[in-house]
Structure formats: structure tokens, C-alpha cells
Specification:
It is a single chain. The protein is built from 8 helices and 15 strands. It is an alpha+beta fold. The structure holds 2,5-anhydro-1,6-di-O-phosphono-D-mannitol and magnesium ion (MG).
Length: 337
Amino acid sequence: MAKKNQTLGEFIIENQTEFKYSSGELSRLINSIRLAAKVVNHEVNKAGLVDIIGAAGETNIQGEDQQKLDVYANDKFIQTLTNRNIVCGIGSEENDDFIAINSSDDKNQNKYVVLIDPLDGSSNIDVNVSVGTIFSIYRRVTPVGTPVTIDDFLQKGDQQVAAGYVIYGTSTMLVYTTGHGVNGFTLNPAIGTFYLSHPNMQFPEVGRIYSINEGNYAHFPQGVKDYIKYCQEEKEDRPYTSRYIGSLVSDFHRNLIKGGIYIYPQTSKAPNGKLRLLYECNPMAYLAEQANGLATDGFQRIMDIKPTELHQRVPIFCGSRKMVEKAKEFMKNSQEK
Ligand code: AHM
Ligand code: MG
């Protein structure tokens, strides 16, 4: 039973038996993410003080400029997960390929792989806007003790055993699920401990916030244009409020608490949208569903999509159940016309 003010450490131990294959391994893994999150948090908070902001001069696989803190966060999460020898593989949005982790005798007995977006929304760092880390955990599908293969990473979101995010905001929070609801923990920076502050988080079924980059309006599919028009209509409880930070974790987190929908659709310029299925959409979809919300690509459940490549992108509509259903209806109707 989740108790408010319980520490994350206590919560992990108390809820360990809820896991289907409880061996303590998944608990240790979440503990490592907690540790890396604190280290990254410390650095993110210093961003305005030290000369660390700015492009590191490298470009990631999607051709975007990497910022120094992206590189730092990526290194820290990979280092922590590797050094503690608790996973057999890591996929990161910042790395072209997955990393296979071998223990010293080359017989890694670990069962889990982690997929991570170490610092999402990092273009917001320069302007002191919240950013986040997104993670997703799967059991490997290839035999334990052999090197991981791409098949261990290209699993449907439905197969996730845990997922979550860290939001480096006005306060730092770790929000995660292991398939038994969603719980949020707030960091007390004075003592470096996360406390359960938001037990059993649930999307309000009906929300009044829509979050989408309307600057791309001209390039949206007709269904999205129609849904936006619906949101802006003066009728019943509408018009809704438009709120878009441009930092997925922050937009999702606000909508989870207040009720809303986040949309990053396909556009005529980006036919598969912008966000990555494995690092961003699946973990957010798992959290959404565990919090009584929904996540689709406009037509199909995100977690039913069979990935074909590590850095695959998909459109996403995610948040309060009734809002996502409505947007889906507009997508379907526009296709039938
Ligand atoms: P990133 O992984 O390169 O940081 O990009 C992901 C971010 C999301 O956090 C955010 O919701 C989206 O990109 C914003 O994109 P846009 O500026 O096109 O609206
Ligand atoms: Mg990202």
C-alpha cells in the first residue's frame, strides 16, 4: 500500500513482490535509475551557473545538434547501468546502435534491457525550461547468458515491465510504473531523497488542455486540423486551453495532473511525426494507460506497434481518455471522407 511521504527506496522494497518475476533485479535497476537521475539533476540545476550550456559539436543520429548536457546525461545513465552490472543491454536516443553489456566472464546473466532518452527537450535548457529523462524496461527475449541482439530491443510497448520519467522542473520528480498504477516521487534536494508525493496518479478522464505545436498547422493532416477546430469551438465546456511547452515530459506531466491531450502528429514534412517509438512514445503510452489515459498514433494503440528499427518515429496522441478518443474519431472521419 503506497503511503505518502514514504521514500522511493522504501517503496521499491515494499512493492518488490508485485513484479511477475521477482528476483530483486528490477528493483536494483530502478534504484540505479534513481541514482543516475540525482546525478543528472545536480548537473541540470547548475546549467545556468557554469559554462556547460551549448552544443558539444556532435550531431546525433537524427541529425540534431547535441547539447553538452545531453552527452552528460547519456554518459551518466549508461555508466550507472553498466557499472552496477544489472542490465544486459542499453538503447539510447543519443546512440546510433544499442550497447551490449558483457560481464567480466562474458556471461551476463541479467535479464533486462533499458531504453532511454537521457535528456528530452534539451533545446529548452538554455532558457531554463523543464526537461526530462524518459526510460523504458523490457525483459530480453533472447537466451540469458548470450549477447543481446536487436530483437531484445524491437519489442512491442505492450511488453514493457516498467517505464517512467524524471522531470527536472521547479522541483525534480521521478514518476514511474511497473504495471500497478503510476506513482510520483519528489526529490528533497537538501537530503537527496525522493519521497512519494503523488500516489496512484490518474489522468482526469475529461481534460480541457490541448498541447500541440500549432506552428505546424498548415502541415497537419485534416483530422488534426478538425480536432483543433473542435477544441477551439465555443460549445459545452469548450473552448479548451492551449498549452505547449515543447518539452514532452513537462507537457505530459502537466496534462496528467490537470487533464489534457498531447499531440505530435504526422505532418506533410515529417510523415511519421517527430517522436521516437522506443525512447519516447512507448514509455509515455505505458504510463498513460496505467494512469487511466490512452495513447494512439491516431488510429492504432501505440503499444501494439511492432517496431522495425531502433530510432523509428511515430505520431502520438496521448492523455485523458475522452480527449484521445475524440481526436481519434476526427482522424477516422477525415480518412473516410
Ligand atoms: P528531443 O528528443 O530532440 O529533445 O525532441 C523531443 C522534443 C519533445 O520533448 C517535444 O515535445 C518536441 O520535441 C517538441 O518538438 P517541436 O519543437 O517540433 O514542437
Ligand atoms: Mg527526445
